[in-house]
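Bumping my old thread because nobody answered last time. Still need a sequence for this structure:
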């Protein structure tokens, strides 16, 4: 998933269109200025730019793209022409590059000032989800190929759509951005290591091969983007205005291509994987919320970690599954999860948006 964070929050300092540039909590459209004691000016839907509106409607584009891919898979044949995944992998790489272009060293330096929340999110992502995936696969006695794909999915980093969910659901957008970025950068080590350890109970899994692929797909383009942002800020400033819509377009391709490529297998085996995939993401959202709460976190960070935990980078899981496993059924959990996690996550974000944040000054709820 790409970096899909529309600039709806208006802090006093300028922010980049794709990422919140500071880690101060981002106030929702209807917030109360605790210093002044008066409500801030709400941001109305009609006042948003076209880019902002398209970003907030990202779940709609997700469902539309998945539906077209399932009903008319030939429409995405250009992405996998000849049976290869080079174009799909290139789209993932460009998405990771867009993330890197929006990050700076200062973003990571700020992480050191919130170590507890960062560690809680990391533990939820790479502790709760992989173990939950293994437990569900064993409890439901999934066939070997589906179990391997399911565990691979549960070991993937957080997806970029979590940033949109955090914005809509009144989470901490800045925290979400950095947590997703850190989990993505860690994926070249954590995803292969955990997949080899947990899925290796079913079939042999090469951690080294997975690590090399993950580094190529995720780590290299992200680091390149960060480097360009630091070394060529003027060039990046020129590119940045176009990046949200470019990222949105690439996202739809990255989401729809897996559904189209495994459509026959998805039609045959999707129903048998629907329950475990739904349980995985339901559990991720619930436990991702409860863990920081038990550690004493406030409401906004708890919501943020919930979204990050429940929304995996299913596109990365799909890319790794088709590259390293010959059985097409291994890719089915990731292809199905793309739709399921967005459906659950957007519903949760809508519920959170209309629930009060009790540990902050009283604020109005919903869009104006």
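Sorry it took so long. Here it is:
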């Amino acid at each position: 998933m790409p970096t899909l964070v529309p600039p709806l929050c208006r802090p006093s300092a300028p922010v980049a269109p794709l990422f919140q540039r500071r880690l101060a909590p981002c106030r929702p459209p209807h917030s109360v200025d605790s210093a002044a004691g008066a409500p801030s000016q709400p941001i109305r839907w009609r006042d948003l730019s076209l880019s902002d509106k398209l970003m907030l409607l990202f779940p709609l584009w997700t469902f539309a793209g998945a539906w077209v891919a399932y009903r008319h898979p030939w429409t995405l044949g250009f992405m996998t022409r000849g049976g290869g995944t080079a174009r799909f992998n290139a789209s993932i790489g460009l998405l990771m590059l867009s993330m890197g272009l929006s990050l700076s060293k200062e973003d990571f330096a700020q992480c050191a000032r919130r170590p507890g929340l960062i560690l809680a999110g990391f533990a939820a992502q790479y502790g709760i989800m992989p173990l939950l995936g293994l437990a569900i696969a064993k409890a439901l006695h999934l066939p070997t190929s589906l179990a391997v794909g399911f565990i691979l999915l549960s070991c993937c980093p957080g997806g970029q759509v979590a940033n949109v969910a955090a914005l809509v659901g009144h989470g901490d957008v800045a925290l979400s951005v950095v947590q997703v970025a850190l989990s993505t950068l860690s994926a070249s080590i954590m995803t292969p290591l955990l997949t080899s350890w947990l899925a290796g109970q079913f079939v042999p899994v090469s951690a080294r091969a997975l690590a090399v692929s993950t580094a190529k797909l995720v780590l290299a383009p992200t680091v390149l983007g960060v480097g360009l942002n630091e070394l060529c800020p003027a060039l990046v400033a020129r590119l940045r205005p176009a990046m949200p819509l470019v990222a949105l377009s690439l996202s739809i391709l990255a989401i729809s291509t897996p559904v189209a490529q495994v459509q026959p297998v998805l039609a045959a085996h999707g129903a048998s994987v629907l329950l475990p995939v739904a349980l995985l993401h339901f559990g991720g959202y619930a436990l991702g919320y409860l863990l920081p709460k038990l550690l004493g976190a406030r409401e906004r960070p708890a919501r943020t970690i919930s979204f990050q935990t429940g929304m995996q980078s299913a596109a990365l899981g799909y890319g790794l599954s088709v590259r390293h496993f010959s059985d097409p059924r291994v890719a089915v959990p990731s292809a199905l999860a793309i739709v399921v996690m967005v459906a659950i996550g957007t519903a949760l974000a809508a519920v959170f948006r209309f629930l009060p944040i009790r540990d902050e000054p009283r604020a109005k709820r919903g869009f104006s």
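The chain has one domain: 85-353. Let me know if any region looks off to you.
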